[in-house]
Design brief:
The chain is of the alpha+beta class. It contains three helices and five strands, in the order αβββαββα. The chain is globular and about 50 Å long. Bound molecules: zinc ion. Zinc ion (ZN) binds next to α1.
């Protein structure tokens, strides 16, 4: 596939060059178990398109990811779960092919989250919203 790279771990998994425990695949998406899961059923959903970060993936592949997340999360079957997606090493990305984690959560296993909430004013929020809207 032209949209894949030879030197990427996840592109090799998509191409079957590296084995994995595949759970789902369609035209644009591939899903398989994480080899170092933080919970039983921890699954990765990836586009069949090599890009390091979310904003670099074509919209049709991202639409496919959205549908696949619903299908695969349903199949993973956890009552509680997190969907996690990291972009960039500072944001804890370790493999630089876009991937979404589906991570079951219960009292014993799953994702721990730090949520350092801030409290901006309405004006500050408005300024931020305007900046973002101006770039869309
Ligand atoms: Zn790749």
């Amino acid at each position: 596939m032209e949209s894949l790279k030879d030197d990427c771990l996840f592109c090799k998994i998509i191409q079957g060059k590296i084995p994995c425990k595949k759970v789902y695949e369609n035209e644009t998406v591939f899903a398989f178990l994480d080899i170092n899961p933080i919970a039983v059923g921890h699954t990765l959903v990836i586009p069949k398109y090599h890009a390091a970060q979310c904003h670099e993936v074509p919209e049709d592949y991202m639409a496919g990811i959205g549908k696949a997340l619903s299908v695969v999360a349903k199949a993973v079957g956890a009552k509680n779960y997190n969907i996690l997606q990291n972009n960039g090493s500072i944001a804890h990305q370790a493999v630089f092919h876009v991937h979404f984690h589906i991570i079951p959560k219960d009292a014993k296993q799953g994702l721990g989250i730090q949520w350092p909430a801030t409290n901006p004013s309405g004006d500050e929020l408005e300024k931020t919203a305007e900046e973002i809207k101006s770039r869309i």
